[in-house]
Amino acid sequence: MKFNCPLIVVTDIEVSRRFYEDILGQKVKYDFGENVVYEGDFSIQLKAHFSNMLKIDEEEIKYNSNSFELYFEEEDIEAFVEKLNKNKNVKYIHDLIEHPWGQKVIRFYDPDMHVIEVGESIKSVVKRFLKEGMSVYETAKRTQHPIEFVERVLKDKLS
User: What Gene3D superfamilies does the record tag this protein with (predicted)?
Assistant: First the structure.
């Protein structure tokens, strides 16, 4: 068996599409009208369609559970946060923070109160630390990644 993709239920497919495509830059892989699959291999599905398939009332579908999140990575997290801040409809869970391993992340809700996390890639974190003058060893220790990974990022950075 192979896991295919997560699917989140949305109340308004057009509102959610604008959010995922315009704010998060996601590209549509398949558009089935009531179900949209993105290239990142997650789907949004209209609440009415989902409840009909499960043979349950729409009221049984709950939002704002804070029990899972969709995670995205961004190479330039500060530019993304600047773009995000221009959208007055975004409800933040927290502003940009830096985890102990150095990764900067921000969390907020999508229009249906699903948790969204956008973090800088670990590769970006490694590049930032090396640019700031940390050694390969210090960077590996701080990011909790193998020295070989940090050296590979350093090599890729120079070529």
Answer: 2,3-Dihydroxybiphenyl 1,2-Dioxygenase, domain 1 (3.10.180.10)
Question: Could you tell me which of 14, 9, 17, 16 has the C-alpha nearest to residue 53?
Answer: 9
CATH number of residue 23's parent domain? 3.10.180.10
- Domain final position from 10, 28, 57: 57
Whole-model pTM: value is 0.90
Domain that holds residue 149: 123-158
Beta carbons within 10 angstroms of residue 146's beta carbon: 10
Say how far apart CA 155 and CA 47 lie, in whole Å: 47
Q: From first to last of its 159 residues, what are the pLDDT tens digits of the chain?
A: 999 999 999 999 999 999 999 999 999 999 999 999 999 899 999 999 999 999 999 999 999 999 999 999 999 999 999 999 999 889 999 999 999 999 999 999 999 999 999 999 999 999 999 999 999 999 999 999 999 999 999 888 654
Q: Domain tally for the chain?
A: 2
Q: Would you call 1 helix, strand, or coil by DSSP?
A: coil
